[in-house]
């Protein structure tokens, strides 16, 4: 394990494998880099892999101050600087994708491609926005979180997924979930949706979206229609029952990422 400083906070990250271009694994809010454990191990024999914890998450420290998108960007930039990697391909879980987009804005061609996993890349549905709004009230945050956990684990039998949701994500306090709700909602308000944000680049980076849920054909169809008009975007729906394909179907995720990078 390595550490670097982001302001007055110590950021923990792992650095394995070798290569001028490194994957940078970015966990979602209220989760640690453990979500990428097996995937990172599978990729490291052929690629350099960086996997970080945000401030206040996992093994990274916290200064007890409030923080948001700007601080997460600073944390990622600190890890990139400490690593010395010449090029970075962010592999972002869910709404960490907003940080990946900001990295491309900040570093340009040093971020040649993006990988997003289980992200709402189209307009966020009203029930989701409603949950984010309720979550911003600390008095409701845990109740909303528990509702999300119930939805995410319904019909899921994979022990690694269940353990991660309950024992990793379940350890974060109401204050962190409220912060997550605020920052995620703010990103959709500012940007519209991830596909719009990516399309706004003069030269959009090749972007791969991997997800397993929802199975709604309309969601996949909307992304495939977008991809038909924007060849820099690729989407694959994986054979996963949960919202955590990096844990549930690690081999599928590994293969799709390696094929995407090699193309």
TrEMBL record:
| Gene Ontology molecular functions | hydrolase activity
Give the matching InterPro entries: AB_hydrolase_1 (IPR000073), AB_hydrolase_fold (IPR029058), AB_hydrolase_sf (IPR050266)
Q: What is the protein named?
A: Alpha/beta hydrolase
Query: Which UniProt keyword terms apply here?
Result: Hydrolase
- Is Hydrolase one of the keywords UniProt gives this record? yes
Q: Which GO terms describe its cellular component?
A: membrane
SUPFAM superfamilies documented for this protein:
alpha/beta-Hydrolases
Q: Taxonomy-wise, where does this protein's organism fall, top ranks first?
A: Bacteria, Pseudomonadati, Pseudomonadota, Gammaproteobacteria, Nevskiales
């Amino acid at each position: 394990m390595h550490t670097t400083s982001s302001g007055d906070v110590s950021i923990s990250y792992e650095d394995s494998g070798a290569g001028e271009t490194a994957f940078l694994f970015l966990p979602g809010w209220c989760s640690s880099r453990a979500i990428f454990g097996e995937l990172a191990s599978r990729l490291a024999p052929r690629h350099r892999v960086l996997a970080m914890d945000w401030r206040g998450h996992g093994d990274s420290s916290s200064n007890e101050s409030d923080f948001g998108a700007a601080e997460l960007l600073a944390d990622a930039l600190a890890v990139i600087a400490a690593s010395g990697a010449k090029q970075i391909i962010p592999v972002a879980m869910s709404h960490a994708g907003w940080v990946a987009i900001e990295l491309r804005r900040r570093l340009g061609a040093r971020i040649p491609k993006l990988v997003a996993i289980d992200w709402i890349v189209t307009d966020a549905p009203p029930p989701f926005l409603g949950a984010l709004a309720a979550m911003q009230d600390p008095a409701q945050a845990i109740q909303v979180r528990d509702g999300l956990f119930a939805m995410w684990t319904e019909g899921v039998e994979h022990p690694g997924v269940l353990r991660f949701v309950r024992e990793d994500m379940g350890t974060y306090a109401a204050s962190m979930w409220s912060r997550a709700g605020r920052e995620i909602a703010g990103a959709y308000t500012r940007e519209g949706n991830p596909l719009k944000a990516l399309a706004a680049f003069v030269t959009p980076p090749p972007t791969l979206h991997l997800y397993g849920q929802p199975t709604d054909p309309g969601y996949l169809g909307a992304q495939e229609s977008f991809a038909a008009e924007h060849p820099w975007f690729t989407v694959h729906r994986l054979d996963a029952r949960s919202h955590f394909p990096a844990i549930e179907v690690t081999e599928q995720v590994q293969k799709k990422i390696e094929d995407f990078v090699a193309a």
